[in-house]
User: Fold this.
Amino acid sequence: MAEDVDLKARQEALDDCSPHQGGDQLELREEEEDINQSNHNHVDSLLSLEGYLQLLSSQMENMLEVSLLEDIQVASSSRGRDSSSSHHNVSLTQTLSHCFSPCDATLLRTDYPTQANSEMRHLQRQESFPQSSSNIANPESLLPGSNLTGLFSAADIRNLTAHDDNFDEIKLMSLASEEGFDPIEVSQLFEEPGSDLGLSLNSSHSTTFHSVCSEGAVGYSNDVKSFSSHGLGAGGGHRQEHSKYGQVEYPGDSQCSREATLQQFLHNHAYNQLPSQAASTPEHQQQMWMEKPNEVKDRCHNSTDTNVSSDAKALRIPFSVDEIVSMPVDSFNTMLAKNHLMDTQVSHLRVIRRRGKNKAAAQNCRKRKLNALLDLEEDIRNLQTQKESLKKEHSQCSRSISKMKQKLHNLYCDIFSRLRDDQGRPVNPCQCVIHCSSGGSVFIIPKHLVKSEQKQDSENEQKQKKDG
DNA sequence: TTGCAGTGTCATACC
DNA sequence: AGGGTATGACACTGC
Assistant:
């Protein structure tokens, strides 16, 4: 504001010296107003840019934390069995990290016909739901009807989880199934008409929570590793149970059971929460279970990487989620046709694909926004530099005009001091003016004649305008 | 506890 | 017409 006043004062001073600078002043004011408005509009942008730079610097740390959390997660699951099996953690982590590779998925497909025992299948199906809807932060929130604390006291389980934020969802889910937990019943119980393809909405009914799956800022990377690491929460548990019981589902099974497995996996969209943040009281658990889909839908957003990975795995699709998202539409349609999926499964996969696409689009959109802000900030700097340059040029021009005016005045005085009228008397410069014609001739004309001529000229111009 | 930044998702418009 | 993209809005999490 002080700069405004100073500038205006200077401009007024310059205007006094040079009466023809009104246009320049107006332009400068406009430019100044524009710049000031830009400054005002981008104060917030500058503030957010600071945070963005901090985010960039911390993303490398986050990437390291991801792998670290993976090890911690597995370590926590093996802690209850063998506290000294540190080497186990490494191998498990490696196993988990390969859980969603296309090669792995293909192998799973080829394994299907080798499974024949129907009882085992039933048991495995029961196992599959806990795996899919794992991610439990609070063991007591598994099911309202299942009494986990009958096997382990709440204190024991809390102690188990207290070692790490990443509670061992796998183990607890196994316990849940041992308690007679029927995943299909539950999925049917919470199946509501009009829900959103059973993805976020249906999943919302579950009180299960993700273990910490290293979500957070992932930057704009959308590669396979990114998806895999995010999928460790559910995917890791899933894989582990596979190694325990073999295949959970078979391609030769009815579409119904396949669909059931799909639903089970698609029900896994709870937000990752720490044990302390999860529902802790039975009342709260009950409330969570009774919540309407729309009320809990959005709570489930951040875990979708995990869950869509599980979705693809549950469908036995030999492609990773990232491939599902990034593959051309023709390849995608071919893949859908080859796998002989039901309509609902196809629609689920399309949802997965659409969400993945939209996720990337949102990341690009935000990236563009930030870039636009950076560009605008640079524009502001450039305009400020240009403004300073123009101000200097303006002052230089004003000084030049003042000098020329002074010279003209001196010349005027010099000429009139030498002029004499017909009678040899000096000509009064207040009564006469020097007039230069277009032909180059110079006349000394009395001022009153000049004024009358000017009046006539202006009258003629007005007449011409009216006629025109 | 509150505010903020980052994120995923949805709805919608547009291509 | 169907799929992809862009973007505002919303809810949520973690800090």
Notes: Residues 215-216, 271-273, 277, 297-302, 329, 354, 357-358, 360-362, 364-366, 368-369 of chain A lie near DNA strand C (CB under 10 Å from a C1'). The longest strand of chain A covers residues 432-436. The CA atoms of residues 73 and 166 of chain A lie 5 Å apart. Chain A is about 65% helix and 0% strand.
